[in-house]
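Give me structure tokens for this 527-residue protein.
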Amino acid sequence: MHVIIKYFLLVTIGLPAFSFAQGIINNGGSIVFSGAAHIYVAGGTNGNYLSQAGGIVYPSPTGNIWIEGDWTNNSANTGFFSDDGTVNMNGANESINGTNSTTFNNLTLLGSGVKTQNLNTNVGGVVTTNGVLSVGNVIYDLNSNILTITNPVAAAVTFGAGYILSETNAAVNPSIMRWNMAANVGAHVYPFGVAGTQIPFTFNKTTAGISNIDVSTRATAASDNVPWAGASNVGGVTFFYCPNNAMAGNPCATNSVIDRWWDITPSAAVTANCTFSYRGSENTLNVPYNTGNIGAQWWDGTAWNLNNATTGSAAAVLAGVGSVTAPGLNQFCPYVLSSVAIPLPIDLIDFSAMCDGENNVVLNWSSASEKNSAYFDIMNSKDGFTFTKIASVSSKGNSAAINHYSFMVENKKSLGNYFRLKMVDSDLTYRNSKTEYVSDDCNMTEEKPNLYYNQHNGIVITSTNKDATNYKLNIIDAAGRLIRTESLPIHTGYNNITISTELAAGVYLVNLTYNNGQMISKKIPVY
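Here you go.
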């Protein structure tokens, strides 16, 4: 049976003899379009289209089907005889169903609510593959299925305020958007989103190799990024550790990684510039790394790439939508966005070095808290640039209290003048403290302080002292008024003190009193 459609038809029929609610049931027939014919299946949630028993549509290039309900294909075909026409889903909540996948030519999403895909579905056509998916302003839920875009050009998917929902929080996310890009190059935008926020992923293909590109993305409910990505085109993730660290060890996903995964799987080797987007609420990195730079990091089946700074870098955001563009990617597998600067669990609050007698130096430091810390390496340098380990001190490991440490460096004369700490985590991640300078001779004589003004930092005072003492600083303006006075604690050894003044432009007299009433006076211009 053939039904030839030449004119606009408004169909609001109900067939209670079938267990299909209401709408159009194509029971083994052929619906043939002629010219710019339209079928409009109204009736809200009852405005459905069902094809069964080999039913099929013969579309025309400018023909349209409008449905306010669900689309169901239970026929042993793709739903259409040729790659023509447009299906418009213009109701509220609607779904694509059936025992066989439909291949739409053009699929336009209109109306309101969520459009849900309940089986694998194709858009763009079978042979000519010129069709377009128009997401418009609605949500299209992949619902653990694959949406295949058969049109290879970048313009094959359009969207307004709407998005495609890929948020199945499973180790292997089955909510996949597959784009058959063939040999086409250019920026192909996967218009993902969640909870009213668009977080598009862009695959800007730069090589002409023929490939299909599967992409899925998901946020994780907890800040440790579980479940970790399972086996896809590579083996599943077996450990997590801080970026730029060559050693596998304890997970640090909680404080180093944006709470979102991307699975990217090409069918053949390609190279692309990729842009990853995420919500600010998915940024649970520790302070200050939560506003520092983050980069893309991939898992190759056995390990993580070690330097995410080479795969794009951008400042992390805490609100709205952030993104990172990683150029020249040719390794595709599970991806995360991780901190380029490595968060460490040791929160150091002070570090000092001072003479103790003629040949010894005492190092003192304190930590505000520690988590999975391992030890401190005592580092020494003769030039302030190249440091060598001279000793190690065990840390507390895990502590929420303030911890104080002290170490005596004996026979200082055989060492350099510069000291610092290397703070090492249990997975061998580390960072360095500030550098402290100690004079060549711990039994030094007093030196006259040096006083000068730095336009960027303020007043700078340097001195070398045999004993701890206090200096007194007075600042006097051009009218002879004392506008600031300050007592400066001076420790044994070398001192370098910067005093932020925030003075208005003008000329000031700075008096520094030291060593039983001796004074240095300098005029400083501020501009």
